[in-house]
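Field reference: sequence -> structure
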Amino acid sequence: MAVASTTATSAAARAGRTKSTLPVIAVTGMAFEASIAAGKGGDGIEAVYAARADLLERALAAALDRGASGVISFGTAGGLGPDLEPGTLIIADAVDGPFGRVACDAAWSERMAAALLDSPLAMRTRRGAEAAVAAPLTGAADKAALHRSSGGALAVDMESHLAAAAAAARGLPFAVCRAVVDPAWRSLPKAAMAGLRDDGSTAVLPILRELARDPLQLGGLLRVAADAGAARKALTAARRVLTASGAFFPG
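Structure field:
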């Protein structure tokens, strides 16, 4: 299976660039998240994505080999904070995951938070820890347990620990910007995950098969779709604010 990346910039094109002109690598799990992160291209952000950890690590390593000024974990996340609605934006102070607790770059995170708080997104922006896991966390009870065991992490994803480890290995600044998609109190129906391919793209047929097996999942799937719409809208707006202010890039 090919490793996914939203850019096709050659290594030769990267050669000779100074650190200030190298891109920020946005690490995501799904194709639509990478599309938001990459935007129209040409503004210094390169996005890599895959749902399976080894594919994501390979894509990220290749991007970092071409050169980077920083690494940001960007995309959607499951809500852990009991009061966080879909579309809430998390600028993380640290990532609590399989590799332990890793601090985000304080100056970069503060600049991002300040830009969002000085925008129409202020009321939906939160600071705190991001949890990271190696397998999907879809049940409300499991999310509540992780919220407690992580010391109050606000949200959870499957990529931030990989992005943090890669950034640390290269001595690069690391940050997190995530939008809550499924709130803490909501369990996801099995159909919601059925179509996710290893490379981060989505297939419709497995979702339809799962719905045919259990049609009662349809209501839950429609709620997931509405939540995903709120998260996508917030993430797109955050990308616009952060790039316009320059806060998407380490200082």
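Note: The domain at 21-188+229-245 is CATH 3.40.50.1580 (Rossmann fold).
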